[in-house]
Design goal:
Layout lengths: L6 H8 L3 H9 L18 H15 L4 H11 L7 H33 L10 H6 L10
Length: 140
């Protein structure tokens, strides 16, 4: 297993937890690496590079399935990159929707906070707003 990294070394180089690396292997995002006589995983520079790719894509919010597709596309060197562009545009649209949802959530929480008059917990408007209204006579 000359010139191979252990899982700990690969984890340090890519800033990825060993448990996460094992998970990526389990779901087939990364190939299972060769094992030493002592049953230790050995990662080549190519595998560590692939792990770095996955790590960076996750940091950018791509889903596991999107990463799987991006990795497949990255191996098709002569393929037009419009598919990668389309996938990225779709991801940007999803991010914009999440930002809008978070902004609406922030506004709602700020509204609840501004309605707070202080006082006792028993009279807290925020806790009151969080409690579901129970309708009388509702069927179970």
């Amino acid at each position: 297993m000359k010139d191979l990294m252990t899982i700990g070394e690969a984890a340090r180089v890519t800033d990825t937890r060993p448990e996460t690396i094992r998970y990526y292997e389990k779901i087939g995002l990364l190939p299972a690496p060769p094992r030493s006589a002592g049953n230790y995983r050995g990662y080549s520079a190519r595998e560590v590079s692939r792990l770095g790719f996955v790590r960076r894509a996750r940091e950018l919010g791509f889903s596991i399935e999107q990463i799987r597709e991006l990795m497949q596309l990255s191996e098709q060197h002569d393929h037009d990159c419009c598919t990668v562009d389309d996938l990225t545009r779709g991801h940007i649209v999803a991010i914009e929707q999440k930002v809008a949802d978070l902004h609406a959530l922030k506004q709602e929480l700020q509204s609840l906070l501004s309605a707070c008059q202080g006082g006792r917990v028993a009279e807290c408007r925020i806790l009151e707003a969080l409690s579901p209204a129970i309708q009388s006579g509702a069927a179970n």
